[in-house]
Amino acid sequence: IPHLSSHTLAALQEFYLEQQQREGMKTSQGFNQYSIGSIEEDWQLSQFWYSDETASCLAKEAAVAAGEGGRIACVSAPSVYQKLKELDGKDFSVCILEYDKRFSVYGEEFIFYDYNQPLNLPETLLPHSFDIVIADPPYLSEECLQKTAETIKYLTKGKILLCTGAVMEEQAAKHLGVKMCKFIPKHLRNLANEFRCYVNYASGLD
């Protein structure tokens, strides 16, 4: 009869316990639907959430760059969207463009987005109507970046904040005219690829 080793069994039990605790948190009164991890990563969709510190830093940068009454679009960057929603009292509006329909819990601010159809967007998303677009293409490929870049250029009035691998530096400059910042984003889980931020304006990330 096949059986699990004691080490694997213990790890499995720990995983189930963590899952139960998370579910318990969700049903408890103080649950925050915008907290990072409230919707779990789906590795099949190449989802890796930022650390709390990184998400806060990027959200604050986007809010400052957008300015008072500004509009922010988060393209495949849900953890930044969640942090922006936690910045109470800030005078800006934000929407999330995302392939994962679990994020539709965020109502009218959720816009279904497939980078393979970069300009298949609702008519309500007017061209050049966002003060800043923050984007994190799901895959480290030039094709994915090029298609996401079409969306970004359609949406932004000018300012772009791109998060992607360090290996994409040349392609990021080619497709979006962005330069690498000193700030190094971190994720909840360590990624194999070095990750960086790129901008095309004078940002606070240097």
TrEMBL record:
Catalytic activity: L-lysyl-[protein] + 3 S-adenosyl-L-methionine = N(6),N(6),N(6)-trimethyl-L-lysyl-[protein] + 3 S-adenosyl-L-homocysteine + 3 H(+)
UniProt cross-references to PROSITE patterns, sorted A to Z: N6_MTASE (PS00092)
Subcellular location: Cytoplasm
One Gene Ontology term, aspect cellular component: cytoplasm
Gene Ontology BP terms: methylation
InterPro entries: DNA_methylase_N6_adenine_CS, Efm5/EEF1AKMT1, Mlase_EEF1AKMT1/ZCCHC4, SAM-dependent_MTases_sf
Keywords of the record: Cytoplasm, Methyltransferase, Transferase
Record HAMAP family: Methyltr_EFM5
Top-level taxon of origin: Eukaryota
Stated name of the protein: EFMT1 methyltransferase
Molecular function GO terms recorded: nucleic acid binding; protein-lysine N-methyltransferase activity
